[in-house]
Amino acid sequence: MDKEQKYIMQTYSRLPVVFVRGQGSRLWDEDGAEYIDFVSGLGVCSLGHAHPAVVEAARNQMGRLIHASNLYYTQPQIELAEKLINLTFEGKCFFANSGAEANEAAIKLARKHSKNYEIVTAENSFHGRTLATLAATGQREKQKLFEPMPVGFKHVPFNKIDALRSAINENTCAVMLEPIQGEGGVHVATREYLQNARELCDEKGLLLILDEVQTGLGRTGKMFAYQHYGIEPDMITLAKSLGGGLPIGALIARRKVAESFEKGDHGTTFGGSPLVCSAAIAALNVLENDGLVEKAAILGKYLTDGLENLKAKNSVVKEIRGIGLMVGAALNGDFAEEIQLQCLKKGIVVNKVTPNTLRFLPPLTIIQEEIDQLLEVLGEVIEKGFTDAG
Ligand SMILES: *Cc1c(COP(=O)(O)O)cnc(C)c1O
Q: What is the pLDDT of residue 390?
């Protein structure tokens, strides 16, 4: 930890634990203590840690061809794209290396396709840390230090269709939304809001971009969160769990939109490498073959019900939000940091997403007994009470 302070730029507030191994929904620290993981590497390790199918696919591919660049054809990238298109809508993929990069690609494609530039996003949203995705992110305090921000983004209150309508002008080319705001504290878009946003985009000739970097690939109990809403976006972006733990991002756009990207318009050295794409194919196969998406819906309900129960018993818990296994617990005070630390000491990994909100993003392979253990520990920690805010 001393060396981390000396050699790593201090951009992260890390919890005082060194993880050295993971298996399924369990993590172990350097002293051999075991933890149940309700964060899964920020929703990345959806299949649990070290899933054998992902490990085997990555290991095999690593021995064959790790990287060749996009100067050439490689087979896993194309196979992964075909799979993703079969799961979403008639369109095409662009592979990047992270969520922010997938969103950058979406922003560039929206501008190129529409020959216009302004994108309306939601307040409290999170779209990434690169300059353009930071400008898209509706959190002023994150932007201030790095001004001037790239132009062309407008932020409106979430879940308010009139505000969205009022923000549209002759420069607008797209609306970009998270179906569930993750980093903002787990706020779910209403069905009416996303449906109205879709209609509004159709009426005004705008592109609807859904940032499914966190909600995508089974997390919410459907393969993609937009499928809860009975709408189809023009583009979606994916990342977090797509690579089964390896870094990958993807932009999927409707065919007509996708075809606005022409040779040389966009690119990346690492994007869509045989290694990450092989891991992603294996991860998708597990997700489908093991019925993990359906399990996420059932276990998500179990987790939410359990948290509602805690709320009924203790006034520290204010509100439970989320869909499937993307769940937030809002608290009556800034207690998330303390609860996070107390839980960690008791072998339960949870996440403070905002000072007054806990977030749960367990692997979709989590089992009922593990959720019971979370609820028990959380109950104990909360029962003890808090003396001051934070
Ligand atoms: C995590 C996240 C991102 C950024 O992804 P990175 O891989 O960290 O760049 C973008 N959008 C949403 C909704 C996210 O949850």
A: 43
Q: Is 211 a catalytic residue?
A: yes
pLDDT in tens, 106-124: 999 999 999 999 999 999 9
The pTM score is 0.97
Query: Token pair 């040779």 is at which residue?
Result: 263
CB 240 within 8 A of CB 178: no
CA 105 to chain centre: 17
- For residue 302, the Cα-to-chain-centroid distance in whole angstroms is 21
Annotation marks residue 126 as catalytic = yes
234 as an active site residue: the answer is no
Catalytic hit among 211, 222, 224, 352: 211
- H-type helices in the chain, by residue range? 2-7, 40-43, 52-64, 75-87, 99-114, 131-136, 140-143, 161-167, 191-204, 255-258, 274-289, 292-313, 336-345, 368-384
Any ligand 1 atom below 6 A from CB of 127: yes
Ligand 1 mean position, distance from CA 383 (Å): 34
